[in-house]
Amino acid sequence: MDSFSGIYFLICDFYYLIHFGGLLSSKISRENFIRSIADLLRKAEIELPDDVESALRKAETAEESQVAKSQLEAILKNLEIAKKHGVPMCQDTGIMIFFAELGTEFQPGFDLEAALREAVILATAEVPLRPNAVDPLTRKNSGDNTGVGIPDIHWKLVPGNQLKITAAPKGAGSENMSALRMFNPTETGNIRNFVLETIVNAGGMPCPPLTIGVEIGGSSDAAARLAKEALLEPLDAPMNGLEIEILETVNSLGIGCMGLGGSTTALAVHVKTAYCHTASLSVAVNIQCWANRHASIVFGGDE
Amino acid sequence: MEYHLQTPLKKEDIEKLNAGNVVYISGELLTARDEAHARILEMKEKGEKLPFSLEGAVIYHCGPLMQQAESGWKVISAGPTTNGRMSKMTPSLLKAHDVRAIIGKGGMKGVASELENKCVYLAYTGGCAALAAELIKEVNTVHWLDLGMPEAVWVLRVEEFGPLIVGIDSKGKDIFAEVRERAEKVLEKLQK
Asked: How confident is the model at residue A301 (pLDDT cuts 50, 70, 90)?
């Protein structure tokens, strides 16, 4: 690979792997990076990951309520049309959120945040994406999906020489229904009920069937972030006892697809935990609509 | 039961609809979200005339994704938004104008009594924007673009827009409220 002077793309499932030969591994072209991220955003907006689409198909097959079934059929038909025409599956193309795992030995040689921002502007014009980013007080829309704090980039330093970026655009309908509560340390028994109350309160508003991310512990801000990160877990990954218990009780509520009644209110529940202060017990619930959009790309690395 | 309606809607058109019925609409839809609602009410208060008519209108709670082409605006994606946010402003809107149908998703808490004998709530599958865009034939015009693309009032020509489920009928029956009450009862039992 030492003589390899260019870049090649290896498309495997949701991952584009961009490899650089030998000494070039410390250099990555800014232009190619921006192009790849804009393409990644396009992919995330148009197609759902296979595990999410397959969970929706299963829900449609299992549904007995005719109204709920008609709604799930519309969702599946919508996914087909979005793919066929190459258009975003939902008009709420979301707020641009990136989860980035940056290898400590990965050296981009340019300002990664500025490049991500540029990629968002490019994707907004190209895909196109709905300009959603506004000033919180004046409500003035920037017009290009960027602004103070947007795109929202979560950096994690990891060992190695790769950079993995996951784009996870998030709509407001489901995000607005998310919740955080600071419990007393002795109230672990109330966690399940808090999740259920949040789901009942949300009803059909966050576009069920949902993916539910729950984070127990951590500081208040860490809890909220990790609950959101939990949404990225594959929907077909095995769930533990607590997750299954919450999923089954959520589905026993009968809220159903779009809140019109039915057997599938949630597709999956993912619970994460983090150590917290001995006097704290924070619990965050992040609600994701049926359009659990995300796509990843990996830059760098060795053969 | 399935109904195919033409806008502007008459009172008789909506009186025959029952919660759970399926409806398809042809004619014009007007999009309006939080900011447009606020401006409509503000203008009413000041006694100013709206640049569009809301009499017999169908309001679509939608912030579409549009693209400006040489020939005019093109709909890329136009699904319903969560209309719970508009619940507080809807009663005043219905007092000021004879809006006959509201299209959205997720239901609207506490508006069933305000809709009685006036208006129906029609549910369109949330997020199904690519599907909706296929049923929107033309962008007739746009008002208040200064509010931003999602918040502007878009006048859309549609053909057989649906399937829409009558979520709240004009007699006060509200499917969303019934589902919610049932869920609250299940939750109560679980908490015991």
From this structure: confident
Residues A119 and A12 both lie in one domain: yes
Residues A178 and A160 in one domain: no
What residue of A is the nearest CA neighbor of B66? A130
A151 preceded by a cis bond (ω within 30 of 0): yes
CB-count burial class (<10 Å; 0-12, 13-18, 19+) for A229: buried
Residue A266 lies in a domain: yes
Ordered structural domains, chain B, with CATH: 2-191 (3.20.130.10)
pLDDT more than 90, % of chain B:
74
How far is it, in rounded angstroms, from Cα A295 to Cα A284? 24
Hey, are the CB atoms on B134 and A290 less than 8 Å from each other? no
Name the region of A301 (left: φ>0; alpha: ψ -120 to 50; beta: rest).
Answer: left
Answer yes or no: is A123 within a domain. yes
* Containing structural domain, residue A157: 8-47+89-171+294-300
Q: How far is CA A34 from CA A126, A195, A227, B169, in A?
A: 13, 39, 28, 50
> What value of ipTM does the predicted structure carry?
0.82
Predicted confidence at residue A14, as pLDDT, reads 35
The answer to whether the Cβ–Cβ distance between B130 and A253 falls below 8 Å is no
- Asked whether the beta carbons of residue B65 and residue A67 sit closer than 8 angstroms, the reply is no
pLDDT in tens, B37-54: 999 999 999 999 999 999
CA closest to A256 among chain B residues: B179
Whether A71 maps to a domain, the answer reads no
pTM above 0.95, yes or no: no
Contact present, A261 and B123 (Cβ < 8 Å): no
Residue A17 confidence (pLDDT) above 60: no
Report d(CA A141, CA A133) in Å as an integer.
6
Q: Which residue has the higher pLDDT, A232 or B79?
A: A232
Residues A227, A202, single domain; the answer is yes
Number of domains in chain A: 2
- B4 has catalytic annotation: no
